[in-house]
């Protein structure tokens, strides 16, 4: 009996010790990538046991939090501007700023039973939704799309602005507006309505970059996850969840020159 108790105590202590020393990765991720990051974390865990703490918000909000000392290990932005600024401010590890995905924008209606197209916005009389252009790269892409279509003047004063693209998704899903701009990844995951993939020539390239932060508590694990996101395995998951792979656009290439890589314009998507 004593031996059994001792053995049981040892097992409990070993388990507690493992949990106490289990590596934790603190991930800051832009709202558009919230679904993808879960799949990527689960895949990475197969070879790197750890616990994760995922913080989801707009890229602009997360950037400000990092500047004010938020204890993240790795930051997955929805643009390249904020990662560049963090590098200029000396807040990231050298050589740990890379493009991990190219985002795609979509127009979605949760209430439409028929296929929609961008031209519908030219005759539509109601309000539309988009994330805030000043804090969310997908919101800025939505603004640029409307400007390219000469519709920004028509809609900018009646735009329902979300703090991030997830909030915008909920505004459209609730029926508060008929149309709104979301990520293609969100459109693929939607179960209702109709959507259309937007030609990337209508807005700046949504080059999404990641950085390992200099004040990271678990730099080694963050660096390993960083490298994993550039692997073939991770890039396959990223493309399956609605993004173009990171290799689509070289870091030295200007966004405007990537138009020939875009998906076919106005690809209609019916949610199942």
Automatic annotation (TrEMBL):
It comes from the Bacteria. Residues 1-22 form the signal peptide. Keywords: Metal-binding, Signal. It holds the Pfam family SBP_bac_11. Belongs to the bacterial solute-binding protein ModA family. Residues 249-272 are annotated as: Disordered. This is Molybdate ABC transporter substrate-binding protein.
């Amino acid at each position: 009996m004593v031996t059994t108790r001792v053995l049981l105590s040892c097992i409990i202590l070993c388990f507690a010790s493992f949990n106490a020393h289990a590596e934790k990765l603190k991930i800051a991720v832009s709202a558009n990538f919230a679904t993808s990051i879960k799949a990527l974390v689960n895949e990475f865990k197969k070879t790197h046991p750890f616990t994760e703490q995922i913080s989801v918000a707009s890229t602009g909000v997360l950037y400000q939090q990092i500047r004010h000392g938020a204890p993240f290990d790795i930051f997955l932005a929805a643009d390249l501007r904020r990662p560049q600024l963090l590098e200029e401010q000396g807040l990231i590890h050298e050589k740990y700023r890379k493009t991990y995905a190219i985002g795609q924008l979509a127009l979605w209606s949760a209430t439409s039973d028929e296929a929609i197209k961008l031209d519908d916005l030219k005759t539509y009389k109601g309000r539309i939704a988009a994330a805030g252009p000043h804090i969310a790269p997908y919101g800025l892409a939505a603004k640029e799309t409307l400007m390219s279509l000469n519709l920004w003047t028509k809609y900018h004063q009646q735009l329902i602005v979300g703090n991030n693209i997830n909030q915008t998704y909920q505004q459209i899903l609730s029926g508060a507006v008929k149309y709104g701009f979301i990520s293609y990844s969100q459109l693929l995951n939607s179960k209702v309505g109709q959507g259309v993939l937007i030609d990337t020539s209508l807005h700046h390239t949504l080059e999404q970059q990641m950085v390992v932060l200099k004040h990271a508590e678990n730099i080694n694990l963050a660096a390993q996850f960083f490298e994993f996101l550039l692997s073939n395995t991770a890039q396959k998951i990223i493309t399956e969840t609605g993004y173009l792979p990171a290799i689509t656009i070289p870091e030295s290439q200007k966004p405007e020159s990537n138009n020939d890589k875009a998906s076919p314009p106005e690809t209609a998507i019916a949610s199942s």
